[in-house]
Amino acid sequence: MTATSAAVRAKLGLPESSLHWSAYEARYQALLDTDLAAADVPAWLSDWSSLTAEFMDVAAKLSVYKDLHTADDGAQARYQAFVADVVPPSERMDQALKEKLLAVPGYVPAPDFALTYRRFRDEAALFREANVDLGVTHQEQMNRHAVLTGNQEVTLGGETLTIPQARQRLDSPERAVREAAWHALAESNLGVAPDLDRVMEGLMGTRWQFARNAGLGTYRDYVWKSLDRVDYTPEDCRDFHGAVRDEVVPLLSGLVADLSRDLGLEGLRPWDYNRNNLLDAQGRKSLEPFRTGEELETLSATAFAGLDGDLAARFGQMRRDGLLDLESRPGKMTHAYCAYFPVRNEPFVLMNVVGTAEDMRVLFHEVGHAFHGFYSGDAQPLVWNRWSPIEFVEIPSMAMEFLTLDHLAHVFSPEELARYRSKQLEGVIAFLPWAAQMDAFQHWLYAEAPENVTVPELDAKWLELDRTFHPFVDWDGLDHVRAKGWHYYHIFQAPFYYIEYAMCYLASVALWRAAQTDPEGALDRYKAALRLGSTVSVPELYRAAGVEFRFDREYIRGLMAFVRGQMN
């Protein structure tokens, strides 16, 4: 595939009128002008929700389209114009509507709206007019990162590759192939590093200004409020970092040492360690179960059919309705994600597949997000009650990576399936130190480092943390590359959104553990939790899924013991 498919283009098509504030202003004003008594609130909320869904729909489609066409200046300009001209007045109107709702005398929210009502109250208290226009700058800075990385290319052996295509070579059993690919990727990354450093300098200034405008001491304080983190503290996160350092890093170091021994290596160099896909101890070629995005869709459809008929039907809808764009190509953002179009309750998955088993795992992950959108959208009429708090939102995706494991006999031979299953379990162990490092870096950056921290200081802190959480990789002579490991999507695009992956990975392992003895019950609880959307607290969502909201040392130790047992 060399261009976005016709079905995808049709799905993302928007009338010109929807790109301007005039399409929304009168309806916002009508909501604001309504005489509102307590009895009138439910109908008024429904109207506001419908308008918000329409607005979110347009914003999401513009964002997805520009990510699919990073070299299209027109697509980038349309998105930026919407962010600059339409988003700010909508945010001001939303603030006015929240204040109107909060001032209604005698109104008591229904149980399924109580949490959203409390969040509205907290958001209204955090709102600052100065941060509205600053948000436009913030979005422009983040999009600069998307353009730089989306247009990045790698030259390898006279061939021009996308970043995902080059990364595929890192899975080769041939060390010389891996090393050549790693150096080519490093050269490409270092080529854009000065530009990314400048983007980060701008982002840090903008983010600290958000906090100052809100009268808060650090950007972490601001994020904690804006992300509604009420169920845990920064101290809990620091305890998690220490638990992973003490409980998981030694376990991963042991796996790596065994791998080095089996492969006859004195130690692992950077091209020998991919946390998403550890090398095969027998030196076998990585599993490549498909060649094209269409083949991956077909294989995945059969897996979902084996797991659950309704899940299969939802995936079938995505295939039929142009809600998947899977293959890697130039000018396409290299990250994978699931977007959401709320008007028709449609999730959209963007990926960059190149034919590996890892691609299959990522598809199950992203489609798990899609199931979350489908089920919460079906059950929750109000758009704010869909999806869930971010501490739960990765469970639908990560759990799907595990729940599909017993439905892949059509994809792999028994030996290959054992390898795929082992890779999934190794991935849990390898991921947790990375997640702890990412989270620790951001706590330092936005709460401990001085506001005028420099890029060399960022590099030095990353090196310090990487030596703590990944001490088993030999970077001799390559620390100038290692120091830029913080040049990662979430650092630029989703600040402080990373520990949630660890929380949800632990919960997903626990959910899979329950499914070993009660697969039908575990799947029923999974779907029931998704339907709750954002109407109950994070601990209640976890309980609905049949797991605990925990990420402490004892819990991590117990789950790692289970993972080791499954690997054996």
UniProtKB/TrEMBL annotation:
Entry keywords, A to Z: Hydrolase, Metal-binding, Metalloprotease, Plasmid, Protease, Zinc
UniProt-listed Pfam families: Peptidase_M3
GO BP term, example: proteolysis
Cofactor note: Binds 1 zinc ion.
Cofactor(s) required for function per UniProt: Zn(2+)
InterPro entries: Pept_M3A_M3B (IPR045090), Pept_M3A_M3B_dom (IPR001567)
Domain of life assignment: Bacteria
MF (Gene Ontology): metal ion binding; metalloendopeptidase activity
Residue ranges annotated for the Peptidase M3A/M3B catalytic domain, each copy included: 171-559
Family, similarity comment: Belongs to the peptidase M3 family.
Protein name: Oligoendopeptidase F, putative
Organism: Deinococcus gobiensis (strain DSM 21396 / JCM 16679 / CGMCC 1.7299 / I-0)
